[in-house]
Amino acid sequence: VFSIGVGSGVGQSELRSIAGSPSNVFTVSSYTQLSTIVVSISTTVCDVVVTPAPSTFAPTIQLTSAPTVPRCTQTQPVELVFLVDGSGSVGTAGFTSSRNFVNAMVARFSVGASSTRVSVVQFSSSTRTTLTLPQGVSASTVASAVTSMPYMGGGTNTAGAITFVRTSIFNAARPGARKILVVLTDGLSSVSPATAAQQARLSGITIFSIGVGSGVSQSELSTIAGAPSNVFAVTSYGQLSTIVYTISTTVCDEVVTSAPSTATPTVPPTALPTMVTTLAPVTSPCTQTAPLELVFLVDGSGSVGTAGFASSKTFVNQMVARFQVGATTTRVAVVQYSG
């Protein structure tokens, strides 16, 4: 069983009770965001199917996940900064997963002095810079720095960390480059991040917030990001790897839009580089050589609404498109419920 929660009205404990495994739980902040997790969930389903069947009566199943998608293709500069929670609640295993997540995200971009530059800052009660933007100009340099990044421990001052990257990291941003900040945290900030996040966005920084576990607040994540579509959540650090494609593709999508309005002087159009970023293509369907029964149980209660239900239907169709549907391969059932 895979459980998907939408919005702030779902209970993480109930989702885990339904799925039985934290790795089978997914959450999004709105119904419109469902399409961003299609690849993550369908690939996870493929991975689960290749494990031994839970019943001896089930046929032998051999499915392979879709191949890793290529990196984003870009011809404009991007300043990509990761703000990584290193507080005591993260733990050494969680911090290792965070480092792996950052490296996997960076691998989706073309890193270089004239393309994407990467900075990584760890925070707890204070901040520690692992890599500045001028330093993060090669994939090997970034990977080495992230892999060797020591775990800090301590409290969680997300507000102070956001202010730090705005004033001490993004101050080295190239004129005309898009400024992207990815905030990864598993707890509440000791100081409200509302003002710090607003100041960052006013300076032209687009923020994506990622919450891990049950200790995070959806409202705080939304306050940090400023837009529901820029908020992501997973139930455990081990699940971060399942949303790399989703978030990196969303970042690519953000980069091709017009630059956000800022309080800084307007850069003359002639000084701006051409904005052309191509999203990685949708991955091919899972390849299977054994039968699979795939059932969708779709919430149709009053709280969903007509727009939300339309997004649910689109999600189901996108999921089904990732599998080989047929009488001898994958059969699909869809059940709506309410009351």
Fold and architecture overview:
- With 339 residues, this protein is α/β, with parallel strands linked by helices.
- The chain is built from nine helices and 14 strands.
- The protein has an eight-stranded mixed sheet with strand order 1-2-10-9-8-5-6-7, sandwiched between helices. A two-stranded antiparallel ribbon has the order 3-12.
- The radius of gyration is 21 Å and the shape is globular.
What is this structure, in a nutshell?
The chain has helices at 12-19, 38-49, 91-106, 139-147, 158-169, 194-202, 218-225, 244-255, 305-320; strands spanning 3-6, 25-28, 63-64, 73-74, 78-85, 116-123, 127-131, 178-185, 205-212, 231-234, 277-278, 287-288, 292-299, 330-337. The chain is an alpha/beta fold.
Q: What is the topological layout?
A:
Elements: E1 3-6, H1 12-19, E2 25-28, H2 38-49, E3 63-64, E4 73-74, E5 78-85, H3 91-106, E6 116-123, E7 127-131, H4 139-147, H5 158-169, E8 178-185, H6 194-202, E9 205-212, H7 218-225, E10 231-234, H8 244-255, E11 277-278, E12 287-288, E13 292-299, H9 305-320, E14 330-337
Low-confidence stretches: 51-69, 261-284
| Structure summary, number of beta strands | 14
Shape descriptor: globular
Termini distance? 21 Å
- The overall pLDDT, averaged over residues, is 82
SS class? alpha/beta
